Amino acid sequence: MTRQLKILATVPIDPIAHQELGHRYRIVTAPADDQQTLIQSIPETVCLISRGLSPIDEKIMDASAQLRVIARSGAGYENIDIKAATIRGIPVVYAPLLGSAVAEATLAMVLALTKNLFYWHRVLLRGEWSRRLTERTDELEGKTWGIIGLGRIGKEVAKRAAVFNVNLIGYDPYLSDQDTHQFGVKLKTLDDLLKSSDVITIHAEATPETRGLIHQNNLKKIKRGAYIINFARGSLIENLDILYEGLKDGLLAGVGLDVFPEEPPTRIEHPLFSHPKFIGSPHILASTAGAESRCYHSMCRDILAVLKGEKPQWCVNPQVFELKR
């Protein structure tokens, strides 16, 4: 293997990747992740490691004749043109190993919202101890928890949510009741889930079909006083405006977001961010040290497998290996 060939990362990557790949290849971080910069940076690249949501399209792929694999260090890959990669015989490897960490983060967000944790923290610091005599927090016992998307992450959320003695319902058009019975979730239509859930957590994949899955019209059907939490992708909710309006008129009791339509958000002055019933985090709560380590080790292993002419464990388009026969 020649050190003249390189691995290009769209943004800085974890030291694990440098340790596992750097002794064989020269790892370069692109100065920016826009299309033109990536096109200029990618020649002589055998592997492109894509982080974030910047589109990886056919023009970027064609700019390196040596490109043999595209990698993601997490479960999402919606920013990569999979069809273009498949046509070019380029496997796209990923690491769908964040289920436990996302599930833990989801529970943390749900509990922080239902217990109004940050409000009570501020009350304590302001010395308003007597508020505990006249105000109350919420509880999960006996409530209905609706899970949108019952893939690896949604199932992990269901397993953990069950310990709170909640009624678990879910929406996933690709599953049947038989599929979800084993982890205690009864399937509903999306409208029925919205109408009957006290807590709604979103874990569906970002696809053209799921873009704007929660929109102004169906959000109006939501059970008054419900909490909505998104740990999937920002594109699954039509926009931030409908969430703010829901909070403002009391339709929603709380909103928790770890993901946003734009990342980072360009409109931090949006009134949603200053609403007392909103909690947000910068797409970080599932990025635990353990989860990131597992994902990077997996990604590096699969990158090296492809570069050695072997099949990786996790591949979005495994048909490319059949085409190469």
Descriptive notes:
The chain has helices spanning 15-21, 35-41, 58-62, 82-87, 99-114, 117-125, 152-161, 177-181, 190-196, 216-219, 240-248, 289-307, 319-323, and strands at 6-9, 26-29, 45-49, 69-71, 92-93, 144-148, 167-171, 186-187, 199-202, 226-230, 252-257, 278-280. The protein has 325 residues and is α/β, with parallel strands linked by helices. The protein has 2 domains: 6-97 and 289-323, Rossmann fold; 99-280, 3-Layer(aba) Sandwich (Rossmann fold), CATH 3.40.50. Helix 1 packs parallel to helix 12 (289-307) and helix 5 packs across helix 7. It is elongated, with a radius of gyration of 22 Å.
CATH class of the largest domain: Alpha Beta
The tally of beta strands, per DSSP, is 12
**Could you say what the CATH topology of the largest domain is called?**
Rossmann fold
Main sheet characteristics: 7 strands, parallel
Low-confidence stretches: none
Number of helical stretches of at least 4 residues: 13
Strand order of the largest sheet: 8-7-6-9-10-11-12
**Span of the ends, CA to CA:** 23 Å
The coarse silhouette is: elongated
